[in-house]
């Protein structure tokens, strides 16, 4: 009898649970399918706003209508270019974006219900703070660089900005030459491949709404640079260097997917060096890692490293006589977590990762690459692999 009572109790509990679920479903169904009508909802009230860089946050109170679905703000970011922003009934604010100036902009607010009816409009006039394009352009500067120009600017808003570089051709016509995309707080970029002759450059900045700055125009003669003559390169083996498991001569053979270069185990940091064959003022270089089996930005591929230069290296292997030319970090462009890759991540690594050498760095005859960490081993790791498949360097040989 005890068993029968228990089973009877369980059945009753189960039936109650089913009835409760059905009752809940009915309520949800009724909420999602309110009766359709053609009655316009009330308008928003108590409207206020806060001006932001190239934007404005608008606060309001919703009407008491039970079928409110969302509020929409409609406005023009410039003559003939309309834009709208929606905010659900769960919120009491919306942010209008895309403004390129600090002019006054009229924003029409409408309440929309589940039947698609729109309220009477409520208009608010906002006056945005200077846009990210405007503030970035105020800090834009560029100077003579190797094979082109070196430009910098500040992007405090971390907005998605594009720097557009123009040059005048032989007929005096503007030609689009290069673009630089960034959302970093500071922009720094080298424009390359321009002959060392007087050239008129024009640089402007724009955003995803096509808000454009003025154009900063200058005539600059780029500093001559050329890819270094690798036939003169020689390995420089001195005490203290890491034991290379590959053929170092293949590090500069121009074939990034070969089976040579530099590879070493053991503790970090670890370094190697080589002779450029001539005293050279370096301007930039490219680095390739091991990318077979989709090992981009992982395993023994270099993450942090230093570049040192010397004209008279210590034969005992110390850093006496060496000068630091730069400290570098390999950054995955997409910013995705380890193990995740975008198409751009693969493309940029396959093309070679670019690094600039500071214009203030001295000319040098010998280079030392000091590897601080890899994507598989942190700084000062007791053990770990490090790989570099290929290096390509540019600069100007000194007389």
UniProtKB/TrEMBL annotation:
Transmembrane spans: none
InterPro entries assigned: DUF4959 (IPR032527), DUF5000 (IPR032164), DUF5126 (IPR033431), Galactose-bd-like_sf (IPR008979)
DUF4959 domain location: 24-128
Domain DUF5126, residue spans: 131-229
Superkingdom in the source lineage: Bacteria
Pfam families on file: DUF4959 (PF16323), DUF5000 (PF16391), DUF5126 (PF17166)
Residue ranges annotated for the DUF5000 domain, each copy included: 264-395
Name of the protein this chain belongs to: DUF5126 domain-containing protein
Organism of derivation: Sphingobacterium arenae
């Amino acid at each position: 009898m005890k068993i029968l009572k228990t089973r009877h109790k369980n059945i009753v509990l189960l039936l109650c649970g089913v009835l409760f679920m059905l009752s809940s479903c009915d309520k949800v169904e009724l909420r999602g399918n309110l009766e359709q009508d053609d009655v316009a909802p009330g308008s928003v009230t108590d409207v206020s706003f806060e001006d932001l860089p190239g934007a404005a946050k608008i606060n309001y109170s919703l009407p008491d209508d039970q079928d409110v679905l969302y509020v929409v703000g409609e406005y023009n970011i410039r003559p003939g270019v309309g834009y709208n922003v929606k905010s659900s009934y769960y919120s009491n604010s919306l942010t209008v974006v895309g403004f390129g100036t600090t002019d006054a902009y009229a924003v029409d607010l409408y309440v929309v219900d589940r039947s698609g009816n729109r309220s009477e409009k409520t208009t608010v006039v906002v006056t945005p703070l200077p846009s990210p394009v405007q503030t970035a352009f105020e800090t834009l500067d560029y100077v003579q660089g190797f094979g082109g120009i070196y430009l910098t600017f500040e992007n405090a808003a971390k907005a998605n900005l594009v720097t557009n570089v123009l040059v005048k051709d032989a007929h005096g016509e503007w030609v689009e030459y290069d673009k630089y995309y960034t959302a970093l707080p500071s922009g720094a970029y080298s424009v390359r491949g321009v002959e060392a002759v007087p050239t008129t450059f024009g640089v402007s900045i724009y955003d995803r709404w096509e808000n454009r700055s003025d154009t900063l125009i200058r005539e600059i003669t780029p500093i001559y640079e050329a890819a270094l003559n690798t036939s003169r390169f020689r390995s420089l083996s001195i005490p203290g260097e890491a034991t290379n498991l590959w053929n170092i001569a293949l590090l500069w053979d121009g074939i990034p997917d070969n089976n040579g270069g530099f590879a070493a185990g053991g503790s970090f940091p670890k370094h190697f060096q080589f002779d450029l064959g001539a005293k050279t003022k370096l301007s930039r270089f490219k680095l390739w890692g091991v990318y077979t089996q989709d090992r981009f930005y992982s395993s023994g591929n270099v993450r942090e490293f230093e570049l040192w230069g010397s004209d008279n290296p210590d034969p005992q292997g110390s850093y006496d006589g060496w000068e630091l030319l730069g400290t570098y970090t390999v950054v995955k462009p997409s910013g995705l977590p380890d193990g995740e890759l975008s198409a751009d991540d693969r493309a940029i690594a396959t093309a070679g990762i670019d690094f600039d050498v500071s214009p203030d760095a001295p000319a040098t005859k010998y280079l030392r690459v000091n590897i601080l960490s890899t994507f598989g081993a942190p700084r000062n790791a007791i053990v770990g692999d490090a790989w570099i498949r290929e290096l390509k360097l540019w600069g100007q040989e000194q007389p």
